[in-house]
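Per reviewer request, we include the raw input and output of the structure prediction for the construct analysed in the revised manuscript.
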Amino acid sequence: MYGTNSLLFVVRTDLAQPTTDQAYLAEQLKLNFVQIYGLFDKISIVLNDYLEFDSNKPNYRTIWLKDRNNWRLGAHNKLVPKLRNQIVHDYVKVFLKGTGSAEYREGILFISLDDLFKKTESLLFRAHDVMLYFILFFHAEESIYRKDL
């Protein structure tokens, strides 16, 4: 399920019954997901100011999911903003056993531990890439700025 090459966690997979370790892992994944998502919001604010976008409320949706002259950095799955909002403002039930995709029932998001792990890991890889691009972008911009002085 979660191999040693994983960026997030290594967990025992030979357990027949869900354990407190798996429940703890589920809560850690939810917190990690929200923190990583917040990173995109913070970078959106900086890019909005620096590149002078016309967004009154820069965030993940307005900067990353909007096509800006074909430099789209994230046509990420539509569940990401919904999952973040559901974790922060409502309730997410994580199934510790089994696999499957997320589904809504009666205002509650049901998601498997495996699916939550994959979505968090995918967001983490995107955050890694965005941080590298962000650093390289500002390095190049500052180099141009210094040459003009």
